[in-house]
Amino acid sequence: MARALFLPKICMLCEITMWSIRCTLALAALMLMLSVANAPFCAFAVDETDVRSSIAVAKENIVVCYRAVADADEAGANTTALLAVLNEAGELFSRANFAYKMGDFDSALDSANQSQERLNGFVADADALREAAVQQRYWDFMVYVVGSIVGAAVVVCGGFVVWFLLKRRYEKAGSVV
Q: What distance in Å separates the CA atoms of residue 70 and residue 82, rounded to the nearest whole number?
C-alpha cells in the first residue's frame, strides 16, 4: 500500500520535469528561429556605395558586351543568341536600378550580380562569332570571285582547245577531199 502512494508522487514529479523540459526545448527552438531569421539582416547588410558601384560595373559590362555584339553583327555573324543573353542581362540590370531607387539594396546588389554573371564569357563568345564570320566572308570571296575568275578562264581556255581541235579536224578533212 505504501508503494501505491509513492508511485503517483513519482509520476507527478516526472510530469513536472517533462513539462519543464518541453518548455525549455520550445523556448530554445524559438530563440534559435529568431536568431536565424535576423542573421541575414544583421550579418549581410549591404552598403549603398557597394550597391552603387556594383550597378555601375554591371552597366559598363553591358555597354562593353553591346559593342562586342555590334562588331560581330557588323562582321555578318548570327548574333541572335547573344542578343537574347544581352536582353536578359539588361532586364536584370533594370531590376537592380529599380530596387536601388526603392531602397532595397540587397535585391539591387543581387540583380546587379546576376546581370554580371549572365555576361561572363560573353565578349569572348562575341569575338569568336565575329572571327568565324570574317573567315566565312573570306571563303565566300574565294569561292565567288576567285572561283568565278577561274571558271571563266577554264571556259575560255576550253573554248580555244575545242576550236583548235575542230580547226585541225576540218583542215585534215579538207585536204582529204
A: 10
Using CA atoms, how far apart are residues 18 and 2, in angstroms rounded to an integer? 25
Confidence bin at 35 (pLDDT 50/70/90): low
60-105 per-position pLDDT tens digit = 999 999 999 999 999 999 999 999 999 999 999 999 999 999 999 9
Whether the predicted model's global pTM rises above the 0.85 cut = no
Measured N-to-C along each axis, helices 48-74 and 105-118 cross at an angle, to the nearest 10 degrees, of 30
Residue 28: its pLDDT value, please?
66
pLDDT, residue 42, reads 45
**Extents of the domains making up the chain:** 1-45, 47-148
Neighbours of 35 (CB within 10 A): 10
Other Cβ atoms within 10 Å of 138 Cβ, number: 10
Q: Rounded to whole angstroms, how far apart are CA atoms 177 and 13?
A: 143
Amino acid at 28: A
Residue 47, amino acid? D
Cα–Cα distance, 10 to 15 (Å, whole number): 9
CATH of the structural domain 47-148, one choice from 1.10.10, 3.30.460, 1.20.140, 1.10.357:
1.20.140
**What residue type is assigned to position 43 of the chain?**
A
